[in-house]
Amino acid sequence: MSDGAWETLSNQAVAAAGLVYFVALIVHLAEWAALRQPAANEVKQAVAVGGESETPAVSEAPAGRRTPEERVAFLNRLGFLTICIAAAAHLVALVGRGMAADPNRVPWGNMYEFTVSGTFVVTVGYLALYRRFRLDWMAPIVVGFVLTVLMVAVIWLHEPVQPLTEALNSYWLVIHVVSAVIATGAFTLGGFASIMYLVKMRAGEPEEGATGFLARVPGLEALDKLAYRVHAFAFPVWTFAVLITGPIWAHEAWSRYWNWDPKEVWAFITWVVYAGYLHARATAGWKGRNAAILALVGLATLWFNFIGINYFSTSSQHAYALQAPAVLLVVE
Question: pTM here?
Answer without folding.
Answer: 0.84
